[in-house]
Task: structure prediction
Amino acid sequence: MSDRRIVLATHNPHKVAEYRSIVGVTRPDLEVVGYDGPEPIEDGVTFAENALIKARAAAAHTGLAAIADDSGICVDVLGGAPGVFSAYWAGHAKDATANLELLLDQLADIPDPHRTAHFVTTIALVAGDEEHVVEGRWPGRLAHAPSGTGGFGYDPIFIPDGQEPGSERPVGEWTAEEKNADSHRARAFAALAPLLSRL
Result:
């Protein structure tokens, strides 16, 4: 690829910063640039469909190879919801605080053993005629109240599996470096990295 840039199909500055950090670990030669084009209608019913819709639109608008993700939190007791509707759980305003508060309200009477959930990130890569989709999952459970000022979205209530008992923390209390080393996006990008190496 002669142009060492790849466009990330999002207007979310948090995601751009997170991807720059993640990509920089394995592909420091590849510059992740933000997307300033029109937002396509995300009318897919799966993470993969929505990621491809966004990546195709960004590639067509910029002429660059494009990556896009569709991410969400899937709560087992809610049958996998909010899922693809995570960003709009409390309405089309995409209000992250309202989304989090609504989810906590819906789970108010659910005891800890049944508060299991996982984050999902599906990343689509569109480069010329090639299209690829990969996925990363991050299992854990949901706290009863938000904690910490790090991350965004549902991070303040998500407690990932694999932490030392007694010292478990929600992602809102993690540093950006800690999160980017183990998150659903990091896991999805690990699957994407071999594909990027061919660009």
In short: The mean pLDDT is 92. The chain has five helices and six strands. Residues 5 and 31 are 5 Å apart (CA to CA).
